[in-house]
């Protein structure tokens, strides 16, 4: 007599089906995804408009203005000049706001809300480990944020470059807003905002508190980097004659002043040229022989930007590691046991 073989349970009964993570993530954060795509498309279109028709119209108006003869009526399109200036300001502020928008979303919804309402815990019972859950939660938005923010800063840099030498009031490369919106450090800061938001959400699953903390953390990191950036690359020191009314050399200035006959650097009294008798007396009393200017020329722009970008990305990586360790501490060393079907 032969024993009857017990049929194996169906695969679905042996192990719960693993959900499709990408589909689940898109469905969960669809409004944020659509909002991000809309922001990139609209702001990208405005930057193309700024660097194209608006720049051309403003440049033409400045050319008309330069051709004006003294004492004669001057006709030029002043509205085109003002329109370019306004929209340059609007788009620059919008690009600079991207890291804060990312941080606010990440802190309010990426991890904190799911921990608050139990969605994360439910996902962990569906054959998804907490570490895999967090990795996917960070990886997919990081790709979209890197591509989108990189595209925006690239378009801003292109729009700004088309104004150089054509528009008299165009911003210099070292203008605070222009410097930040033109470079890769802003795109890296958006990724840092994502990591900061996720970390705050894991630390305290409260949407409002996590959002406020994420915004504050992103602002703090950016402020520290703004202060540190001029010191990330060796500066150039240029000496110039006191016959000038100010030190020679333009760029991102760290320090300016006077040089004495002994080579000591002292503060500039802001008097003016030595050809003016009262100023000559002041410089003689101070034993000043020249101006000095310690600054970064335009050739230092990319070394500064890329160094700052590398530092921000390193901080982002460190914050991500801290987030995974915090998650492990919250959930324990092992994932929740999977439910096995009874045989």
Overview of the molecule:
With 343 residues, the protein is of the alpha+beta class. The chain has helices spanning 11-14, 21-28, 30-66, 78-110, 112-117, 119-124, 130-161, 176-181, 184-203, 207-228, 277-286, 301-331, and strands at 236-240, 252-260, 265-266, 288-296. It is flat, with a radius of gyration of 29 Å. The relative contact order is 0.12. Residues 1-19 and 334-343 have low confidence and may be disordered.
Q: What distinguishing features does this structure have?
A:
343 residues, alpha+beta, flat, 2 domains, 7% strand, single chain, disordered N terminus
How is this structure best summarized?
With 343 residues, the chain is of the alpha+beta class. The chain contains twelve helices and four strands. This is ABC transporter permease.
Protein topology:
Elements lengths: L10 H4 L6 H8 L1 H37 L11 H33 L1 H6 L1 H6 L5 H32 L14 H6 L2 H20 L3 H22 L7 E5 L11 E9 L4 E2 L10 H10 L1 E9 L4 H31 L12
Antiparallel strand pairs: 1-4, 2-3, 2-4
Helix pairs in contact: 3-4, 3-7, 4-7, 4-9, 4-10, 7-9, 7-12, 9-10, 9-12
